Amino acid sequence: MRERLLQLMGVGATITVVSLVMATVGGQAQTTTGKAGAAAKTSPAPKTPWGEPDLQGLWTIERLVPLQRPAGITREFYTEEEIAALDVQRSQKSVFGNAVRQKRGSDADVSGAYNSVFTSQRPTGRRTSMVVDPPDGKTPPMTPGAQERQATFREYQRALVQATDVCKNGDLPGCKSGPPSPRRSEPPPAYPSAGVGPLNRADGPEDRGLSERCMGGGLPDFRGGFTGIHRRIVQSPGVVTIFYDTGQGQGWSRVIPITDRPHLPSQIRQWWGDSRGHWEGDTLVVDVTNFSPKTDFLGSRENLHLVERWTRTGPQMIEAVSTMEDPTTWTRPWTAIQEFNLQDNFRNRIYTEPRCHEGNQGLLGILVGARAVEKAFEAGRGPDPATLCTGSCAGPSAEDQDPLALQ
Amino acid sequence: MRDRFRGSMIAVATATVTAVVMLSVTRTSGQATRPARTVDGKPNFNGIWQAVNEANWDLQAHEARAGAVMQQGVFPYPYVQVPAAPVLALGAAAGVPGSLGVVQGDGQIPYKPEALAKKKENAEHWIDRDPELKCYLPGIPRAMYLPYPFQIVQSTNKIQMVFEFTNAVRIVHLDKVEGPPDDLWMGHSVGHWEGNTLVVNLTNFNDKTWFDRAGNFHSDQLHVVERFTPISSDAIQYEATIEDPQVFTRPWKISMPLYRRLEPNAQLIEYRCQEFVEEFLYGHLRKQQLVKHWEGDTLVVDITRKIPPGEKVYER
Fold first, then answer.
1. CA A293 to CA A269: how far, in whole Å?
2. A239 and B153 in contact by Cβ < 8 A?
3. Using 50, 70 and 90 to split pLDDT, how confident is the model at A371?
């Protein structure tokens, strides 16, 4: 649902890239996956002409690895047989509703339509989860304070959907039907950020969450396997810059100075924090702080401390290891691994230009529509807006869902 | 007097020496250590840069004026105008500085007659039409002289430029790549070196960006050739030749220095303006208005500036 917005201009490029990836590796899973994941160092890491480790190039994630380990799995890696079986099983399931029809004419069915066109499934990766620490492959328990913050927000979100037809008809798992809530006129308990939006309301742009506002690119970015994911890394002596192609046109560019300078003063808070890099052998270590309280990474906001370790583990592979620490959110730090595969420089298949905002007819349409529905209801010509679904209230049922896509 | 004379003599001597060693010296002040040349022998453009001029207001020569938006027809003579409501309350902070202009040759932009009419119309509808106000990608060459810093990250086969304004980015390919599948706001940049000069050829533009706040515009036939030439280790002469047969009668050229930001702790600070302009773009579509007031999609700027006790002009 977070990717629903019509980001018209980005879509073509994304589809091209995704289908290319699928065409290249789909069906060859058994022979190629052995290389991924193990990341055994076979040759010395390439160096730039000025002698620093060379991370440059166009990189993507070719295989789907869920952030957290699925229930029932206890090992760090799948076997080749398991990967083959999962590829078959997943191809019959859905990411956000693609390939699966809900009851015709229902909001849940319409909600899936966009995503069935603009999303795709990557083949299964060797790792059973990006999370490698804690060793059970799950993000650590949240602190009581963070649990309360999340529960408060969820309760508010639920109040906004309780009067919808989707809820009443039982199309929304776990939804408890009720009359329109007076909370519909309350402000949300926290800024509706990437991890929490959109709300089932469109009183203003903020209700729609960051993705529909074209501000969905965040850090760290563990975005899964259903849209284009690219990193373009360019280096110069003392600087590493990374362009993130993410979220269908919500890309952003990041400059990492290699420096021992202290972080920005704490009153400067940024959407992508403040990055400071240094080299440890062949590894780029980046320390990121100064996040804005408007960000939300799995419940962690301004207190997030991110440490990334980027290592070129082979000519075609970068391993990026991220450690997240926030004592106000998690009971312990945790670590996740992403593996990036080098892409063809000449073909240059990257959606370079993040112009979601420039083409954002979707947000405009949602707000215009919401006002029109209110007007019609006041004039006795249409349904109560509280019974309608415009966010966080439809999607494929659990048994239709790709078992790895949203872990 | 003698001291001053001696001072200026030293200054002249220093300047000469600096000019001689400029392209070989290694400087450690300011940003990271930066040799004048990269390891592959090219001029070293790595660092944070910014234009220091008025080009973003108007590429052409213009005198200063009292406000970015002016009230028309207040006085019977067109050369006397007062600031209009949107900027009036900001006093001298909202004026427009004058400039000698950056258009080379006769200083004229060679519009075709119908295009000139559109330029004038653009200027009259600045607030409604300038993509900068909507936080849209600025395009090239405009990104290079917006009043925000940008960072050049120069590698051997790619040069990435990251702009503070809306986190825009451009990549200059020094190696061979396939072109983009669609037109771009920032164009498709392919570069090569001609001696000390980085020459960048830009194609694949859309027709949505402007050159400045004065309504200077182009079509999707825009073709830009940029030349980056070092003046010193801390300044680049930037030139852009602009060609667009649909809008201009001939190619024309702008030229300006770009200056290195020498602060030792210089770094880009986010200016993620999508968020800043939501009220401007969507405020009229809120359920409850936050800014008073909108009439339909018309923003009515009501200025109430109540001067608090002790702040009146004659009380200071």
1. 8
2. yes
3. very high
**Which pair of structure tokens corresponds to residue A149?**
């913050």
Helix count (H) and strand count (E) of chain B?
A: 7, 15
- The answer to whether the bond into B188 is cis (omega within 30° of 0) is no
Query: Which residues between 352 and 371 in chain A have a beta carbon less than 8 angstroms from any beta carbon of chain B?
Result: 352-355, 357-358, 363-364, 367-368, 370-371
Residue B22 in tokens: 């400029």
The three-class DSSP label of residue B19 is helix
According to the model, what pLDDT value does residue A167 have? Answer: 85
Q: How far is CA A172 from the centre of its chain?
A: 22
CA A92 to chain centre: 22
A257 SS3 class? strand
Parallel/antiparallel/unpaired status of strands A334-342 and A131-133: antiparallel
Pairing of β B150-154 and β B47-51: antiparallel
The mean pLDDT of A182-187, rounded to a whole number, is 94
Question: Whose structure tokens read 């105008």?
Answer: B81
Report d(CA B221, CA B256) in Å as an integer: 24
At A76, is the secondary structure helix, strand, or coil? coil
Single-letter residue type at A172: L
H or E segment and range at residue A234: strand A230-236
Q: Is A170 on the interface with B (CB under 8 A)?
A: no
DSSP A136-171: TSSPPPBPHHHHHHHHHHHHHHHHHHTTSHHHHTT-
Omega cis (within 30) before B141 = yes
What residues of B are in contact with residue A264 (Cβ under 8 Å)? 267, 269
* Residue at token pair 């940029």: B226
Whether residue A374 contacts residue B287, with contact meaning beta carbons closer than 8 Å, is answered with yes
Please name the residues in contact with A116: beta carbons below 8 A apart, sequence gap of 6 or more: A97, A98, A99, A100
pTM (2 d.p.): 0.88
* Residues β-bridged to residue A305: A325
Contacts of A113 (CB under 8 A, 6+ apart): A97
Q: Give pLDDT, residue A116.
A: 64
The length of chain B is 316
The helix/strand/coil state of B216 is coil
pLDDT digit of tens for each residue in chain B (316 aa)? 344 444 444 444 444 333 333 444 444 434 445 688 999 999 999 999 999 999 999 999 999 999 998 888 889 888 888 999 888 889 999 999 999 999 999 999 999 999 999 999 999 999 999 999 999 999 999 999 999 999 999 999 999 999 999 999 999 999 999 999 889 999 999 999 999 999 999 999 999 999 999 999 999 999 999 999 999 999 999 999 999 999 999 999 999 999 999 999 999 999 999 999 999 999 999 999 888 789 988 888 877 888 888 888 788 7
| Lookup: tokens for B254 | 């702008």
Contacts with B177 from chain A: Cβ below 8 Å: 345-348
Test A56 with B158 for CB contact under 8 angstroms.
yes
Q: What is the phi/psi pair of residue A336, to 5°?
A: -135, 150
Question: What letter does residue A360 receive in the DSSP assignment?
Answer: -
